Amino acid sequence: MKPNQNQRGASATALLAFVLFVALLYVLYNQSSIENLFTSRPENVTPRVVEARGDLAAGEKSVVELFEVSKASVAYIFTESVQGQLFFRRVAEGTGSGFIWDDAGHIVTNAHVVEGASRIRVQLDDSEPLPARLVGIAPSYDLAVIRLVNKPATLRPIPVGVSGDLLVGQSVFAIGNPFGLSKTLTAGIVSALGRTLPVSNGREIPDVIQTDAAINPGNSGGPLLDSAGRLIGVNTAILSQSGSSAGVGFAIPVDLVNQIVPQLIERGTLPRPGIGIAVADESLARRLGIRGVAVMGIEPASPAAKAGLKPFDLQAGVVGDIIIAVDRKPVANVLQLSKALEAIGVGGTANLLVMRGDDTREVAVSIVDLEAR
After folding, report:
1. How far apart are CA 339 and CA 71, in angstroms?
2. Cα torsion angle, 20, 22, 28, 30, sign
3. 3-state SS, residue 232
4. Where on the phi/psi map is residue 218: left (φ > 0), alpha (ψ -120 to 50), or beta?
5. Residue 305: left if φ>0, alpha if ψ -120 to 50, beta else—which one?
6. Could you tell me which residues come within 8 angstroms of residue 356 by beta carbon, excluding any fewer than 6 positions away?
7. Strands (E), the chain
8. Distance of CA 62 to the CA centre of its chain
């Protein structure tokens, strides 16, 4: 006879009760063993003996000293800028770095750190953030000068070195505010010299220093130092697909900085040497088969107009002038022309070799400051 459903259920219940009873007896008889399993600790445990470290290596001491001496000259910059229009405005916050230039409270940083900022604050070493205002800006060199509104009683301007005698392989150090983390020191070497760095307005910064010292967003505008703690460059950009340091950073050479900063403090802008022409962009010049700088427009009463230069008029089929050399040095594009005019400087005279159709002639043109016009 087969057991019915109720009989099978009763048997299962009895079996379960028996198993639980055996388990309870096991726990009761082995309670002390279980407690020991979770609570027992080795007896007479003491901390490990600390090994004596000894003095820091000479190289470590020099880096520690460099940071301790230099950190008071480094500025950590915080900006706010209003973006959008009407009801869609928002305040965007940014961070960057800089360094104290002089006792008057001028601080040097990158143009892209403070450009368009409605509010600038600066933290020096352990100070509270201090308000600052923009004094001068040079986007063509990605440099700017700001000034503390109420400067502290004492400031430590950064020692200025030179960049013309740098060697690939020598040690360099960057101090800055990467990702908003102030007082960050990174170390590396000069990886290469004589690089060119494109900037937003189509210009290029010459003789840029390449370094593998870690430079990240927020390091922009901070100092690149040599092993003597002297300023040799201004950290300005990285080459990275991820946006973080990939060991390829760039710094504006201090020799260039030392030329530009005094002009920004005095004038607020840099002189822009020129002759008063508009030129064809490189893509148009290539389509026209032109090697040189094609004149596409001339400002009235400008040095170019007074010298008799003539612009192209593509719609009317008028052939204009192409500048192919300055002071007998060939120029193939507007960048080379700009560099040649800058080398001569405002107030000087440029001897242009100009081609119009099949005719070539030399024209003397005065160089003026286009910013002052």
Report:
1. 36
2. negative
3. strand
4. left
5. alpha
6. 310, 319, 320, 321, 322
7. 74-83, 90-100, 106-109, 119-124, 130-138, 143-148, 171-176, 184-198, 204-211, 223-226, 231-238, 249-253, 273-274, 277-279, 293-298, 322-326, 329-330, 349-356, 359-366, 368-369
8. 26
In this prediction the pTM is 0.71
Give the C-alpha distances (Å, rounded to integers) separating 214 from 177, 223, 252, 355: 12, 13, 16, 49
244, 248, 253, 256 alpha-carbon torsion, rounded to 10°:
-70
Q: From residue 201, give the alpha-carbon distance in Å to each of 140, 207, 224.
A: 7, 18, 25
Tens digits of pLDDT across the chain (373 residues): 445 555 555 666 666 666 666 666 665 556 555 555 555 566 778 888 888 888 889 889 999 999 999 999 999 999 988 776 666 667 788 888 999 999 999 999 999 999 988 899 999 987 788 999 999 999 888 999 999 999 898 899 999 999 989 999 999 999 988 877 778 899 999 999 988 887 765 567 888 999 988 888 888 899 999 999 999 999 987 765 555 556 688 999 999 999 999 999 998 988 888 899 988 776 666 776 778 888 989 999 999 999 999 998 888 888 889 999 999 999 988 878 888 998 898 899 999 999 898 899 999 999 998 877 6
114 sits in which H/E element: helix 111-114
> Which of the residues are catalytic?
112, 142, 220
Q: Which residue has the tokens 């990285």?
A: 238
Determine the residue type at 365.
V
